[in-house]
Design goal:
about 300 residues; alpha/beta; Arc Repressor Mutant, subunit A; D-Maltodextrin-Binding Protein, domain 2; eight-stranded mixed beta sheet; 12 strands
């Protein structure tokens, strides 16, 4: 039984699709289906119940999937350890992070960490939130950094930091003259929002509704940078994490107005696959992130 076959099976299950699982491994859908069939034949059990749509795992399939994920995690970790030990390469920690995690702060943390730990190499990839979860669940990233981390059975969450949300507006906007406003002062204003499929959008909508503010959504984007550019252009105001506006406040292109009479924060969390044994290098990087967060507080 080859490792590649186990990975195909796990990808098919994780992505809930034979076609997507095949694409993940660079093979045809028929080849992915054949790989799963060969596993079932070898084990003498049905792993995937194809008698209805959408298909589902059998009890044996669920048990085999969980076991395979542990086997693959350990295999890839051991492979990396042996490869690094054999050729003198630094240990690698792969991190997937949302775009708005704070490039400046993260780069400073990364530089200081690698100066203290030259034997460890950290690779950070900035992605859409959905892709961050995909990378972590697929074992392609050791750690993920996301906002409003959800409670999911397959993920472990380590709280990292809490960022206050502020009203972002152009310097010449009427709100810019205030140091703080109650949320209901946003009622009726043109608003630049996050895309509807993002968790932060749902949290912002909930907060505004709770505080009696009905806004007119003018534009929607999937990242903070695009929202800031739209606000700068005068298309509307927005609610953004304060640390993401550092550059604009320094250059004077935007104003950040605090929220009065209500607390609204964006929690950031470090995620990893539950049950996956983290390498010593990954543990050390988590500890540095936590230490840097405490220093900021």
């Amino acid at each position: 039984m080859q490792v590649e076959t186990l990975k195909i099976f796990c990808d098919v299950v994780r992505l809930r699709s034979f076609s997507r699982g095949a694409a993940e491994n660079g093979i045809l859908q028929s080849a992915a289906s054949q790989a799963v069939h060969q596993l079932e034949k070898r084990l003498g059990v049905t792993l995937i119940d194809r008698s209805h749509r959408p298909w589902d795992l059998t009890a044996e399939g669920r048990r085999f999937y969980e076991g395979c994920r542990e086997v693959l995690d350990r295999y890839y970790q051991l492979e990396a350890e042996i490869r690094h030990a054999g050729n003198g390469q630094a240990a690698l920690v792969q991190v997937a992070a949302i775009y708005s995690v704070g490039l400046g702060d993260m780069n400073q943390c990364l530089e200081s960490f690698q100066a203290d730990h030259p034997q460890i190499r950290v690779r950070i990839e900035y992605l859409h939130p959905d892709r961050v979860f995909d990378r972590v669940l697929a074992g392609e990233a050791d750690l993920g950094i996301v906002s409003f981390p959800p409670a999911r059975r397959e993920l472990a969450v380590i709280p990292w930091r809490r960022e206050p949300m502020v009203v972002a507006c152009p310097r010449g906007h009427p709100l810019a003259q205030f140091s703080a406003i109650p949320p209901h002062d946003l009622n009726g204003m043109k608003f630049i929002a996050f895309d509807k499929d993002l968790r932060i959008r749902r949290e912002v909508d909930r907060f505004l509704k709770q505080h009696g503010a009905t806004v007119e959504v003018a534009l929607e984007f999937d990242n903070v940078e695009a929202i800031k550019r739209a606000v700068e252009a005068g298309a509307g105001v927005s609610l953004l994490p304060a640390p993401t506006m550092t550059r604009e406040l320094q250059t004077g292109t935007l104003a950040a107005v605090a929220l009065a009479e209500a607390e609204f924060v964006r929690p950031l969390g470090i995620i990893h696959r539950r049950g996956k044994r983290l390498s010593a290098a990954a543990q050390q990087f988590i500890e540095r992130l936590q230490a840097e967060s405490q220093r900021e507080i």
